[in-house]
Amino acid sequence: MAQTSDVSGARSANTSSANMNHHILSVLVQNRPGVLARVAGLFARRGYNIFSLAVAPAEEEGRSRITIVVDLDSAPLEQITKQLFKLIDVIKISELDPSRSVERELLLATVKASGPKLADVSTLAEIFEGKIIAVVEDFVTVSLEGHPDKLDDFEDLLGRHGIVELQRTGRVALPKLDRSSRHRSAH
Amino acid sequence: MADSPATPERITGAQALIRALEHENVDLIFGYPGGCILPAYDPLMDSPIRHVLVRHEQGAGHAAEGYAHVSGKPGVAMVTSGPAATNLVTPLMDAFMDSIPMVAITGQVPTAAIGTDAFQECDTVGITRSCTKHNELVMSADEIPMAIRQAFHIATTGRPGPTLVDIPKDALTNEMEWYWPTDEEVQASLPGYRPNTKGHPRMIKEAAKLILASERPIVYAGGGILKARAAEALRELVELIDAHVVTTLMARGAFPDEHPLCLGMPGMHGNATAITAMQQSDLLITLGARFDDRITGKVDAFAPEAKIIHVDIDPAEQGKVRRPDVPIVGDANYVILEIIREIKELLQGGTRQADTSAWKSKISGWQEQFPMAYEPSEPGGPLKPQYCIEQLNKYAPKGTIVASGVGQHQMYTSQYWKFNDPYTWVNSGGLGTMGFSIPAAIGAKAAMPDRTVWAVDGDGCFQMTATELVTATLEKLPIKVALLNNSFLGMVRQWQEMFYDERYSSVFLDSANVPNFVMMAESMGCVGILVESPEEVGPAIQRANSINDRTVVVEFRTDATEGVFPMVPPGTSNSDLILHPTQSDPTRALQPEPKPIDTKLKDVH
Question: What is this model's ipTM?
Fold first, then answer.
């Protein structure tokens, strides 16, 4: 994802999702009651940290794909994937190296802004190719879809205007088409 | 009209449940009825399946474990919802830690009431999610046969473990069309579950080469040997390569103690030779064991020069504690036989096994120098618990099964009983569940009614689950209980003596006074015998062995000051083991070279 130098320079270190110790697991599961609780419970029980989590139905009926960004400071990736794979409902785990995957995330933010400040926010959204979704008297809601790093930068700059409410979806990812990522499957 | 297979047979979910259990060859259920599981207890009356009515649901769970331990078949426990289900949590976790195949069936409030905080409702699948290999809430009668098939399949394949099927009352009372899923349908319903039983051929070759090249090999045999029914294969391998074996707490009996190559139990309370041989070996041939903290001591200092071959059916055990040089994911029996084949091929091809004679003479030197030792009772003094175990063992009929609780008596039994047959030792290894022995012994007796079953218990453990002696009496499952009563929580007392400046906090149970164990036993229909002096020990045991129509409780009044030794203090290296105080301090001789001892005990647990 191309970034201008002034934008990336504004990134704050502690909230950055480009942390080198983060790794992405794309987990294909049977879409059954309690499957998310099983995955989340495993992480809690073994002391593994989840940085972000996104779940939705996958391409095949009865399957869901969970994209988990794990914090590798808490445990070695090998143990995390092996323990995860012991869950009966887990069908396949792909370990996605950030350099060999495409990642996307969606951000919604409501900012207190009116008059000239509204113009500033609007310009910012324009630079980042985001959208103004709603405007009322003193508030504006913007959305931005893109690479999580870009969202980090946008969030930082937006923060100067005072974010009232923020929701990010957590990242979703798939392997890049040009290079194959490592797969771990049941078969 | 159509042939009978085409005519659907309509039965209730409860009937389907019992029929499904029959199809899974269940001959015995340990259980306790109640509100939501009531419908299942009605068709059970017409089934050939025997129901053993326990006195507490925890007892049903441990009895199912004991049954599974000795028979290899999955133990089944059936209880109602809410408090009954929560009472099963301890045995489920126990079975999970020790990889015991077990299927629990729990009643649940009707589907319409789920989530309303109904009477005796609890989130059973939520509560048991982390203490089962898998669990499932069935929402309709139709789903019952498949859920039961999946539960048995998952419990008994791969790394065995407990499974649970939670069935709402209306799923039991509603009708369904009976069907029995095929193997293929079960497989298809579990696309994420394909345990690997065959080890990687290249890794197996690699293991064979390492074994032949090793000058100081030790076979580290764990409970996986018993789960894989690999005791025979193990013996063949050991005799082929002429290497010594240690058998972990979970593997006692997997290799005969009387065999000259058996070193016995390693670990925190293992014998000095087993611990030291592992510590100084150059190759640990790890078969179905998991480098538990009670085995390794301080992990960084564990067997520092050893390469590791790690055979385990659970891939997550590979590298969890100690990185293996040769990881092999597969069934222990299959992999051992393959390794034997490879070794034979290498030997036939001219490869020669490294010379292990210096190592073996070193081992026999340790065995002579550091035998298991305790001081006999002084005349008129209290009984030594080790002596009681030796005598129990001496008089035990062939094939006797021993179950134990958790604590000093468990360690004494593992140390001083000579286990020569697999599936004769039943204990709670991973979870360390006090009170395990009596219900587990009842389960073992139910599985093997012709065998003598001794439960070795402490006075703390006994008071947790002794109520199941009523079950033993009324269900005609006569076990024998050796109650080592030292009036203390012995193991905790020992730790307070060694690590808390002899400040004895809440460990005195006063059980020489209250309760009166003999009266307690007799009140539950058992024979109670009190033994206070060494000369009474043998005759009391013989008397107990001669009574086969009633449960017998023999209470031995034992020495409270006796400790379990050797001991590797928690958090320290296996090179720093402490021998029995009566063995003059020769510990340093066990070390390869003098090392500074870390006197600060970190992470005492």
Answer: 0.90
